[in-house]
Design goal:
Elements (H helix, E strand, L loop, with lengths): L2 E5 L3 H11 L4 E5 L11 E4 L1 H9 L3 H5 L3 E2 L2 E6 L5 E6 L2 H7 L4 E4 H13 L4 E4 L4 E6 L4 E5 L4 E4 L1 E4 L6 H6 L6 E13 L5 H7 L4 E7 L2 E8 L4 E9 L9 E2 L2 H7 L5 H9 L4 E7 L7 E2 L2 E3 L14 H15 L7 H25 L1 H4 L3 H13 L2 H12 L4 H6 L22
Parallel strand pairs: 1-2, 1-12, 2-8, 5-14, 12-20
Antiparallel strand pairs: 3-7, 4-7, 5-6, 9-10, 10-11, 13-16, 13-18, 14-15, 15-16, 17-18, 19-20
Helix pairs in contact: 1-5, 1-10, 2-10, 10-11
């Protein structure tokens, strides 16, 4: 029985642990924090993410705690006019084989954590910071901050955008600063006035309000008991920071260009925190012998395609299924994994990055955008997201060419809708 070390105990790392252990391997998951926990608020799960959770055996449990969305709703954030919607009901669910759902990030993490705790082949170890790795032709070793070393047959780096494993494997320095600041808050749904809930479609829609150099997104989480607010401002910031508290007056000032309904929603927020959004350019190399990257360590992306978790889950499924082999084949299987995943994830990375050209124009450019969106039928809008949402088996769909060619990455994504929060 082979032993694999996974660095990082977030959603991607735990999903990889379940997928790899299902092939009979023993797994040790190392987490830098003392406890295995997940920070953040809402997370969106398109059908491809739910299909991956089904493959991990936690799909039904996850669907039980999600809120199923009826539409992706695009609003002109200045005038308050409804521009268009992508329906997510019967035809969408039948076409893609799963609903589009939202869930609290911590709740999804808890489901994966509990399943790992119940798996005799998975060991979880907290307060264990990894600083790098080493390897021989026969094994791989992680280097710990306290000077210790742990050796296994392979190492998977699922340690996020600031991955220590990536720093050594790729060596591409600090993440790219986007110049976009995001402000987040979660409020009890009961505090949203009934008429505002109806006007803003807070209960069953992922809705976004597009304004000049900014937009607001909201959707329900925690079984509909809370409303997740995420407001983005293209302010040209140059400093990376995360989780800074900010007062509501500042938030309202930053989004003064939005209209009445959007600003009423923002005014309900409290305990706001703010982040500078960062990502990285796609890279071709995710592996080094018996060491591989997964999730944000491999392909960190802005959250505007709402696919970060879904792509990490797809990674986990593909990697787990490919590791149905002896340890001597791990390096070759890691190379195959990268070849299967890098084109699709690169396209999502770049689609998320380019999407601000849709959300943030003003004046005549915003009017032209609205006219374009209004001209598309629901079926056409669904076609535009099918390449993201429609993958049911990320290993075999990749083999049959569902991922785009490298040439497709040289021009902006053609999808005018489908990047959401």
């Amino acid at each position: 029985m082979s032993r694999i070390i996974i660095v990082g105990g977030g959603i991607g790392g735990l999903a990889a642990a379940l997928s790899v252990s299902a092939q009979g391997h023993r797994v040790l998951v190392l987490e830098r924090a003392p406890e295995f926990a997940e920070i953040g608020a809402g997370i969106q799960l398109a059908p491809n993410g739910l299909h991956a959770l089904d493959r991990l055996g936690v799909g039904e449990e996850t669907r039980a705690i999600t809120v199923r969305m009826d539409e992706l709703r695009f609003m002109d954030g200045v005038s308050g006019r409804h521009v268009t919607s992508l329906p997510l009901t019967e035809e969408y669910r039948e076409r893609f084989g799963n609903p589009y759902a939202v869930v609290h990030r911590a709740e999804l993490h808890r489901i994966l954590l509990e399943r790992c705790l119940a798996d005799d082949r998975v060991e979880l170890r907290g307060d264990c910071e990894v600083t790098g790795y080493g390897q021989t032709p026969h094994d791989a070793t992680v280097l710990l901050k306290d000077g210790g070393r742990l050796t296994a047959d392979a190492v998977i780096g699922a340690d996020g955008i600031n991955s220590a494993i990536r720093a050594q494997l790729v060596g591409d320095g600090a993440p790219r600063i986007s110049g976009i600041t995001v402000y987040r808050a979660v409020i009890p749904m009961a505090e949203v006035p009934a008429e505002l809930r109806e006007r803003a479609h807070t209960d069953r829609a992922v809705a976004w309000w597009a304004g000049p150099h900014c937009h607001l997104v909201h959707y329900p989480i925690a079984g509909g008991r809370h409303l997740n607010l995420a407001a983005s401002k293209d302010d040209g910031g140059t400093e990376a920071f995360a989780g800074r508290p900010v007062d509501g007056t500042t938030v309202l000032r930053e989004f003064a260009g939005l209209g009445d309904t959007a600003r009423r929603l923002l005014a309900l927020g409290r305990d706001w925190k703010t982040w500078m959004l960062v990502d990285r350019d796609p890279v071709d190399t995710w592996t080094d012998g018996r060491v591989a990257l997964l999730g944000d360590a491999a392909h960190p992306m802005l959250h505007y395609a709402a696919q970060g978790a879904c792509q990490a889950l797809e990674d986990a499924i593909v990697l787990g299924e490919l590791l149905d082999c002896p340890a001597g084949d791990f390096a070759a299987r890691f190379e195959e994994y990268t070849a299967l995943r890098r084109e699709r994830t690169a396209r999502v990375q770049l689609a998320a990055r380019w999407s601000t050209a849709l959300w943030h124009p003003s004046g005549e450019a915003a009017a032209s955008r609205n006219t374009l969106l209004e001209s598309l039928t629901p079926a056409e809008l669904t076609d535009h997201v099918s390449w993201m949402h429609g993958v049911r088996d990320p290993l075999r769909d990749s083999l049959t060419g569902a991922a785009p060619t490298r040439a497709a990455l040289t021009r902006p994504a053609t999808s005018p809708i489908g990047a959401t929060a």
